[in-house]
Amino acid sequence: MLTKVLTLELRQDCADTAAIGGMADLVQSWRERLLTAVDEAKAPHLEQLTSRFAHYPELSGADRRQLAEEMLHQLKSAPADGGSQSAPDGSQLSGEAPLTDLDGIGPRRAKILANLGIYCIGDLLLHCPIRYEDRTQLTTLEDAQHRQTATVRVRVTGPGRAIRAKRISFAQVPVEDDTATGNLVWFNQTFRVNLYPPGTEMIVTGKVRIHKGKISLAVSEEEVLGEEEIIHSSRLVPIYPLTQGISAVMMRKLIHQALQRCSQIPSGVVPPAVQQARQLPLMEEAVREVHFPKSQSAAQQARRRLAYEELFTLQAALARRRHAVKRPVAQSQVSSDGIGRRLQQALPFELTAAQRRVTDQVLADLASPQPAYRLIHGDVGSGKTVVAAAAVLAAIEAGRQAAVMAPTEILAEQDWGVLRELLSPFGYQPALLVGSLPSESKAQLREQLASGELKCVVGTHAAVAVIDEQHRFGVVQRAKLAAKGDHTNILVMSATPIPRTLALTAYGDFDISVLDELPPGRKPVHTELIVGRDRKRAYEFIIGQANRGRQTFIVCPVIEESDQQYLVAAEKLFGRLKNYIFPTLKLGLVHGRMPTDQRETTMEAFRQGELDILVATSVIEVGVDVPNAVVMMVENAERFGLCQLHQLRGRVGRSDQQAYCLLLTNSRSPEVIDRLQVLERTTDGFEVAREDLRRRGPGELTGTRQHGLPDVRMADLLAETAILVQARDDAFALIADDPELQRPEHQPLAHRIAQIARHSPAWTL
Ligand code: ADP
Ligand code: MG
Asked: What letter would DSSP give residue 262?
């Protein structure tokens, strides 16, 4: 369409008359579209041309002509103006072919797609729509109802008009379909008058207004129909997740092209035997159906097949990793005789039944010829540290070494303190190794570790490795660690209780133990959401508690510890609380960017009860254990995720005293309030995790999103436990049978797993 205007402009001797509002504006309004639609190699040149058009009014006639001709030439060689895209060149591509073999994809777009986990044509074909739009049932202009939203297919019948009134401006374009005529209206987008020349066919969605028998449609979505209109209209149209730089329409076109040009749609990795046993439809059919389905139910079937494919692949990769990690080792095993009993004797409390059970499981792992590889999850306060201590003790007694790692220095310091206490009756002294130590001390500790003189180290980054608060570590670190010590026994601990479906995917290679019991006498933390001005009541409550000798945490949201601005905010808040709100109380401040010794001093003072209130950033989110602290107040609670708030709440209620969690917010958004009320309703971490998962998706919960785990679409998955369990059973059986994937019928799977590992380091064995 831009080509038409340019042609007209040339015909009119470049008088800048072809476009309403002038050529400069018109080309500008096309800029984004041109740049995203053309073949990538041409983009820089086009960009330069578009910029030159900004000066069109000032150019001489000759220069104008030259510029217009050049632009026209560019557009004709790479039509991108919503008009006819060149037909695919017909050459056949294999599923393995790089994306750049497709028309319209260069290195830049290939990179964007790689971010979606799409690396080759085969991947692209597996990129599923999130939903379908039913365009088999378009409305006609005649049937459009006043005030309703309608989707209609129309033809532009004349030039558009830009209408500018005092308070409002809009573009108005006359259209018709086979039943009636009407106007399309775009508010505040007068540039659109030039975009749709007479004859343009388009599908538009918008709100209908019928005034004195005249129909107009305030357009919210439009799609110009090109030659491949068949892809876009009169059917169930696939809607893909949007990404910056790739529009939904472009994605649709790319996939359509890939489907047409792919010589053989990948037949998937599920071996024929499994395929038959589960009566799965053929992958080739499923792939075609999932993009351009005949019906909603056909689409649903196809999605289930693809979900199975994805889950099966993931589970096979997990099974292989597990197989590799669990290979029996010759090295002496860690005897666990009497460890549990001796630890119990040294403790001031009785282990809970859950602690005893899980400790036994861990000690049995250590005694077995296969390295331990276990996830322990349990709600905050369920007493995971003691279990870790049992493992560490067993390792040291067997003449091996132990490393305990934590995601933050504060937590490492604290785990160190607790372990020191727990291990001292046995005569062992763990050392603390964190980044902020002077480098000589670090070097010295490393030397002592290497020589074997040092038996146990607690640190932020490690025989037994215990990883505390695993959910903060993410998957990559875990994989690196597994690769590090050959025969390392690995225990990871997580305080985010996760639903079983998620555990089986994110941690599907681990043995899993659940600490499903809290130490006796714990009262549920009383949680209250405090909105707006009510905060005064909260402050008074805290003062009351302080007068009775109880302590309080006040947490303010610093999302990124590196964010200077937020730290300033935290310090300001601290000053305000200290000087104006709690002038009679003793307050301390900790955050992640403080020198270690300063922070340590403050934490210790709080632990010792010398401070009434500890103001902190979310560095204290995990693990921190000060039993005399009974109030957790969170400022701007809406800025935290539910699981994170649950963690914070877990900092209190660690003794038999009643504890309180006060969530402050100034937000009045019903959505925010509703979300925070989940915490008022329940103190069960599993329930909180389920709600969080439902609202935010699984990536946030497991830290997998950024780490390249194949992104199983969990929303689907949660409803599809049956598929997951089937896929897992099948995959684990297959690996048990052919662990190295050597059989010919397992080659596609072997290949696929290798491919995933190449792109996501987390999957390297
Ligand atoms: P988390 O699972 O959150 O890491 P911790 O290991 O920090 O929990 O334990 C929470 C608190 O409960 C600590 O103060 C710990 O000493 C105490 N604790 C652990 N086990 C028991 C038990 N069996 N009986 C009583 N208190 C316990
Ligand atoms: Mg802990």
From this structure: B
* φ/ψ (deg, to 5) at 602: -65, -45
pLDDT at 214 over 60: yes
pLDDT at 260 over 70: yes
Signed CA dihedral, 539, 540, 541, 544: sign only: positive
Q: Answer yes or no: are the C-beta atoms of 105 and 118 closer than 8 Å.
A: no
- From the list 684, 670, 602, 705, the residue with the least C-alpha distance to 642 is 684
**Residues forming a β-bridge with 187:** 170
pLDDT at residue number 730? 96
Nearest ligand to the CA atom of 381? 1
What do you get for the CA distance between the two ends of the chain, in Å? 54
CB of 384 within 6 A of ligand 1: the answer is: yes
176: left (phi over 0), alpha (psi -120 to 50) or beta: beta
Ligand 1 pocket test, pick from 647, 654, 656 with the greatest ligand atom count within 8 Å of Cβ, gives 654
Name the average pLDDT for the chain: 82
* Separation CA 355–CA 362 (nearest Å): 10
List, in order, residues 6 or more apart from 105 with CB less than 8 Å away: 40, 99, 113, 254
Longest CA pairwise span in the chain (Å): 98
At 740, the amino acid letter reads E
Among 32, 73, 67, residue whose Cα is nearest residue 52: 67
The mean pLDDT value for 343-364 works out to 94
Mean pLDDT value of segment 234-257:
78
What are 138-190's pLDDT values in tens digits? 788 999 999 988 889 899 999 999 998 888 899 999 999 989 999 999 998 88
CA of 351 to the centre of ligand 1 (A): 9
Model's pTM, two decimal places?
0.67
Q: Return d(Cα 466, Cα 367) in angstroms, integer.
A: 16
- At position 478, the amino acid (one-letter code) is R
